[in-house]
Amino acid sequence: MVITLMIGSFVAILNQTLMISALPTLMHEFDVPSSTVQWLTTGFMLTNGIMIPITAFLIETFTTRQLFLYAMGIFAE
What we know:
By secondary structure, the chain is an all-alpha fold. The chain has helices spanning about 1-30, 35-60, 65-75.
């Protein structure tokens, strides 16, 4: 369990780093100012902040198997 949490934390930090390094490319490709592209980072951080408590609630409410099957069902459609 600890290894899974460590890998998840590493991937979250890696995602944030990759997104920040992609901001200049996004600004150029979409021809938008930096203030507009920074909303992407803000949205990502807000989504993380909202999903952490929701995930804790779901883990306490459902079994791991149920969560996995629901997730696969949602993304399969």
